[in-house]
Design goal:
Layout lengths: L1 H4 L2 H5 L8 H22 L12 H6 L13 E4 L6 H11 L4 E5 L11 E5 L8 E6 L2 E4 L16
Parallel strand pairs: 2-4
Antiparallel strand pairs: 1-3, 2-3, 4-5
Bound molecules: zinc ion.
Length: 155
């Protein structure tokens, strides 16, 4: 829970980042059903880079007020030694989620770029997969390392 709520940025700016009980239950779900299966599959401990964000922290980060981080339903992470693309491909095939976004991934630099944003709701999960690449958002994941990405741009 500490790893999912603690933020250096919040501390530096004296922003309170303490989740309510309802949000804590969402964070438990994220830990159990998103993070733990990835940890089991890849066998490497890792700490999320961002989990719960209070509204003030989320705004400081320039993220929209609709962000699932505010509800404790989203997490950003990388798994050390693996490309975020490999991890995202495995998650797409094996686990339930609401949104899986491969963020700021560079196919030319697949092991040292990007991270995964994944979210999970109590119900009604969309299993939507997106890639943010070179300022555009695409549906789905890139086919592989170094390859182009020519699928539909959604926004
Ligand atoms: Zn995120």
């Amino acid at each position: 829970m500490d790893e999912l709520t603690r933020s250096q940025l919040a501390e530096r700016h004296n922003i309170r980042n303490v989740p309510s009980d309802a949000i804590i239950s969402h964070l438990h779900r994220v830990a159990e059903f998103l993070l733990e299966p990835v940890r089991q599959q890849f066998g490497i401990p890792f700490s999320p880079t961002s989990g719960y964000r209070s509204l003030a922290l989320n705004r400081l980060l320039g993220s929209k007020d609709t962000s699932q981080h505010i509800r404790g339903q989203a997490v950003d992470f990388i798994v050390p030694h693996y490309s975020p693309l490999e991890v995202a491909q495995w998650m797409e095939r094996h686990i339930e989620f609401d949104q899986l976004i491969l963020e700021y991934f560079d196919p030319e630099n697949p092991h040292a770029s990007g991270w995964i944003h994944a979210s999970l709701k109590p119900a009604g999960n969309r299993k939507q997969v997106l890639t943010k690449l070179h300022g555009l958002t695409h549906k789905g994941l890139p086919e592989g390392f170094g390859g182009g990405f020519d699928r539909e741009t959604v926004r």
